[in-house]
Amino acid sequence: xxxxxxxDCVVKRLRTxxxxxSVICLLFFVIMWPLSYHRNLSRYHNDxxxxxxxxxxxLGNLSMGFEGGAVWFYTYETPYRxxxxxxxxxxxxxxxxxxxxxxxxxxxHKEYRKPNQMSERSCDLPGVYFRHLSIPGxxxxxxxxxxxxxxxxxxxxxxxxxxWIVRYKAARCRSKSSGPPNEAASGSSISE
Length: 192
Hints:
28% strand
């Protein structure tokens, strides 16, 4: 019995702590949403020299930044936003292509056999842009970019506080409905 009480107490504390962390993350992303429209992840001088952007270094060469209502995770100095990947000769064999697309959204994987055996993975979904470019023979790490609309983290971190509010309101409704016993039902009456 005492052991079950300790487990319940620990579970309640974990729920409370995780809800508080979720509220803090939710507030952070809600504040960053309008601020992200004033951030620039790829700034250049007039002579096309790269300036430090508004990014946060994470691990190794992975960086994170906010721009245009989205959170970006990327390697290298700036996020990949599309463009020229490689120059190929017309005599090169065609790329192996696997893809699934519906409208303008979908997944894809291209492998170029010659001259540099490059691989490109892509994912385009509503609010999500992902590219992974790699050259297996080179000494360079893969070029990775993930752009995710801030709608997704805001909705994700709003779930726990919303569940807490629903549970709190339901508990209050139950306690009100099982309030003090009705005097008329107990047989007592008030007379003037």
